[in-house]
Design a protein that fits this description.
The complex is a heterotrimer of chains A (293), B (359) and C (293).
Chain A lengths: L21 H36 L2 H10 L1 H34 L5 H13 L2 H12 L6 H6 L8 H27 L2 H8 L4 H30 L2 H7 L9 H10 L3 H33 L2
Chain B lengths: L4 E10 L2 E11 L4 E5 L6 H9 L6 E6 L2 E2 L5 H4 L2 E3 L11 H11 L4 H14 L15 H13 L5 E5 L7 H18 L2 E6 L2 H7 L2 E6 L2 E6 L1 H6 L4 H6 L4 E8 L2 E4 L2 E4 L9 E6 L4 E4 L7 E10 L3 E8 L4 E7 L11 E6 L3 E4 L15
Parallel strand pairs in B: 3-8, 3-9, 6-7, 7-8
Antiparallel strand pairs in B: 1-2, 1-4, 4-5, 9-10, 11-12, 11-14, 12-13, 14-20, 15-19, 16-17, 16-19, 17-18
Helix pairs in contact in B: 3-4, 3-5, 4-5
Chain C lengths: L1 H6 L12 H4 L7 H27 L3 H9 L3 H32 L5 H13 L2 H12 L4 H8 L8 H26 L3 H8 L4 H30 L2 H6 L10 H10 L3 H34 L1
Helix pairs in contact in C: 3-14, 4-14, 5-9, 5-11, 6-9, 7-9, 9-11, 10-11, 11-14, 13-14
Classes of the chains: A mainly alpha (293), B alpha+beta (359), C mainly alpha (293).
Chain lengths: 293, 359, 293
Amino acid sequence: MMPSQASAPAPTEAVRRPLLSETTSRRLVHGGLTATALLYVGVLVVAPLVGIAVAAAKPGWSAWSATFADPDARHAYLLTGVITVETIAVTAVLGVVVALVLARDRFAGRSLVSAVVNLPLAVSPVIVGLAAVLLFGRGGWFEHWFTAHGIQIIFALPSMVLVTVFICIPFVIREVAPLLEELGIEEEEAARTLGASPFQTFLRVTLPNIRWGLLYGVALSTARALGEVGAVLIVSGTIAGHTETATLYVLRAFDEGKDASGYVVAVTLALVSILLLAGIEIFKRKEEKLVSP
Amino acid sequence: MSRGIVIENLTKRFGSFLAVDDVTFEAQEGKITALLGPSGSGKSTVLRTIAGLERSDAGRIWVDGEEQGGKSPQERRLGFVFQHYALFRHMTVQQNVTFGLAVRKAPKPERRKRVSELLDLVGLAYFADRYPDQLSGGQRQRVALARALAPRPKVLLLDEPFGALDARVRQELRRWLDDLHRELGVTSLLVTHDQEEALELANQVVVMRRGRVEQIGTPEQIYNQPATPFVAGFVGASNVLHGVVWEGHVHFGRSAVAGAHHLDDGLRAQAFIRPHDIELTRAPGDLSFPVTVERRTNLGWMSKLHLRLEDGQMLTAELANEEIMGIGPGDHVQANLRNAKVFSQDGQDPAPAKELAPV
Amino acid sequence: MSAQALERIPLDPPEPPSSGRSVRRVRFGRWGLRSVAILYLGLMVALPLAAIVSKGFGGGVASLRDAFSQPGARQALALTIEMAALVALINAVFGTVIAYVLTRYRFVGRRLVSTVVDVPFAIPTLVTGVMLVALYGPNSAVGGFLVRHGVHVIFARLGILVALLFVTLPLVVRTVQPVLLEMDRAEEEAARVLGAGRLATLRKVLLPHLRSGIVAGGLLAFARALGEFGAVVIVSGNILNRTLTAPVLIAQLITGFKPEEAAAIGAILFGLSFGLVLIVERLVGRRERESHA
């Protein structure tokens, strides 16, 4: 394609004759980038998922049934379930409260709280466990008060729930706070002028408006709580049959060379997580629709 | 004590910004009062303070004879209509309108009756089961009105209710609100920056600027007897001519206009003239002065003429085409001015602007 | 509904309000909620931070020196930082490509790919390690093949790298995507119309816009990789001075009843993470301020 005489370029600028036509180059780039992306995702993520299938098949049926019969394994599942449920309950409530304050209130420490919200995401769970031990464990700052009241924190359920809540709460806050900002306060103001108390307003107007974001955040929390290992390892003392979660069971199984039962529990956890992922995707889509249909 | 809305010495600050400065007025029972002013004039803040959505720093508010003092919005039982509707997005139209009755635990049959009454009134009975995002802007605002009226509020507060709507829809709803008000007779306080809207709808207008009240009066008074230069310039289109006072006239160049009897000689003054108060003739008259036509814009039945005076100032006149046949750019004609409103240049009117008592 | 969203004046950018209207906040008597938020702040950050720092640096420089004299401590920290940096760089590139492909292109299975990218968010980190061992362990088909060709994944640094890439990928993608979505394509189109080639448009228009998002995503990936425990502990074999990372070392120290040493190394790790969080917060905050201006 020759440039026409009428649009002859200034002498200092050379006209670049493109090597390929616009459509071809676009298609090349398009295809190249897509292929790169798919390949990377494939090798990195999909392959290990295939690995789960392999891992599931490895132990053989007998190992599967043996593990399910193992009382330690059963207890581990139960404990994981209990911790997860308690964590969700606390993070849902506390997370919404903090999100409300972040989104709707203006006060001095607010930007600090905002920075702090992201902290548990960046900090190693091992550090979280360490801090808990330093605060509540033997020789710890608060140890006296709790032992005096007969409450066992470290090496028991309370510390495990505490660290898991610390780690999971950002998921709820990071979903609900921006959502609240986006929604604005007008609907709440309207409800107040119509005669609703602050609590009625929250229940009838705010909560229904944030429900998908909240559910999405809770689903992410659940997945994270299920998979927590670093922090609970440190605070629990991993007393089998007592303070051993499903993840800790897997860890011990591989440590002791009992790979088969390790694989079984790991695959079970993976399957539950994938189911959760489906839920997560659904909630995410519903939330996106709410804010920009 | 009056049964409408009474505001006394209302003051409100946001940090160091003085949004409302010692505002006093009364919105009469059963009438529509407009709070008119440009953005930042504090009118929305006044409205929201009456509703209890903001807390005032000083001043008192009475509604229906009761002081509103420390009451929450919930306790005040006032109807509020927002500029952006603020409909509950996850509730149907029916549920939205029922809300005020539901939270006050009105018995269910009574709720149903009242809601269907209101939906009929606003003409949206057919849309009862729709959601807000399925409605047009005008429809949403009508739902918002029905919702605000359902719990039988003592007064209705409207915060630029038509601001978010198309021009045509705005006109329709304006007319519709007028009819609605005639039928219901609820004391209404309407905040708007659209002076045409205020003049058309309101029985009484309170003009505000920078947190202060500039003038209170009927639309006719505001338009024809502006108390301050700001009101003269803000309400209705206006030309401004600057000159010096001499013997009751404002002189500019070799021309003059009457209306400055209340000012001392020698003061600098500004004269506000409506575009339709300018008459053009070929022959000179008593108080006419020469102008040159710079441009003529024909708008069908009338034209806008841009006129240049001898000392360089400009006037825009609006005249019916019949009256100015043949006048075009470049012509030299004579201008006669009627009804000039004259104010001292620095706003230091020797006679302070008086609030005209509400009719 | 989107028309309404467009008309609506955004109530507040997360940082200081810019107009009179947005300064209005309804006080629903929020002091109770505010105190909860402040309590959260105190409990979540102030206490743990104080505990770790005082325990770790309580003995002054001496305790630091002690900590570093722990066998493998220096190497563990070096390895951890090196791996994290590498992972952040690699995923910054690939994550951006993936985000671009997911946002700008339409192809069959796009939504599936998007879901797959979220898998690492849902899968327990320990299970990630297990999957990688199943797939690349010396006993598996793929693993055996690689070992025969001299490529060791399990119990080697490569395994750590792969595990960390897996875990941090969604962090980068999900941080860059919103920036891409928000971007006004008109700028790119204007550049093309003015004669810029595809590469030039990329360099001069697209990348500068994305820069803060990519950097934020990279930093988040870095912080996450620094602290990763579950994915690494099984895959790496925790070989002293070779594949032992700092988080694993800290866990070993605590469970080995050496809390001071653990705290010293932990304080360094925590300091790094916290610093990163603050930087990311500034970047994200600045970008949001700019987009609201």
